[in-house]
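User: structure tokens for this one?
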Amino acid sequence: MLFQVFIMANNTELVIKALGFSPELLQDKITIIDSLLNDLNENIITSDDVSEQLEIMTKREKILNRQKKFCGIWLASDGRYKTKVPTADGGRKLIAKPTQEHLENYIVEYYKKLDKKPAKPCMRSIYPEWIDYKSKETSYANACNIQSRWKRYFTNASIIDIPFEELTTGAIKRWCVDVIAEMHLTDRQFKDMKSIMNMIFDYAVSFDIIQINLSRQVRGFSDKNFKQEEEKPVEEIVYNADAKHSVIKEAMEQFLKTQNIAYIAVCLNFSLGLRVGELVALRTSHINEDGTITICQEETKTYHKDADGTIHRDGYEIVNHTKTLSGNRRLILTPKARKYIDMAVKYNEANGFKDEDFIFLDKSGKRIHDHAINNVLRRLNGVRNEKDAFVIEGRPSGNHSIRRTTISELHEARVISEDTLKTFAGHKDISTTQKCYIHQTKDITEYAEEFAKVLDS
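Assistant:
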């Protein structure tokens, strides 16, 4: 409003005096103001434009006057303009520029940064150091997974820019409800999303940035809020006997036709039920004289971090452990399992292939990776082109279905104890095996005699 009054006077000299500028020393400012008022009169600019420019000039003048009181500007013997500016630790820093205008511009920007209040911490400001911490505390693989979820749920969300101290449990819950509705999240997807928020708040609490983890206090979401996950029929989770035999039969035919060793690996895994990383890490030195094979290594993905903190996958490596501490185990090599391993070893010998002592090597003689298994499984399950690679209906898909099938078959046979089944699966607790890996592999009609024995007795 004050600038508008000066402008209405439409007199350069009056405006200069009202703003406190000295006409004798500030001829350049007189020229600028005169030009602004002329442009205003000719309707080239508006009074708001003039007001904005005068405000910038006034702030600049205040900063330069502040610097002159602190330490003047002088022309040094080397022909440069110099001054000293205050530092955060109470000292002074010498600044030199080729012209006075360059030096004044530097001073103005320097004080703006010096006076700028540090931003209040929020989820966006904490995220870079937190994800770096997670990559070291857990692994780059886990951090990469978190990174993808952060991009999906949080990058463009307004809540991550709200300072922690301004957030409330109500505001967080309302945002969660909105996201669930807008993105049609299932209960599992929501828990994946909220776990990130919980962990960031945990991190902020651990460094005394905040005192309370409000995110963990947000609970009580109705099941009606979530999109219901469609439960797959059992025939899409595990292989029944017919599907299993057809897959093995076609895998053998495809191996003879293409010499792709991944088909033999698929056949073997119906006897071992390994994780795909364990399967491609098998070595001949893991085979024991007592007819067992030791599972003690796995393939993992490797990652690198860009200068901006983004984590990318860049390859594979073999590590001397499996997914869990209970994953190291010995498994029986059945006659069929030994047959498939012998086929792979003879294939390598016939072609002169050797990559350390890994069992499954590709046509170049190098160890195969997890994608080789996944690719042949998609083809065995009916996929014939990359466009449809992840659209398999009516059949199980992926190595995990083989693993579930093998564990389920052993469970149904009732020939080994639950403890032995847990060990075979490489699980710490039998509840994991029961909850996630045991499914009905036969049609219910095949249990007719058993039902009759129990129910009609």
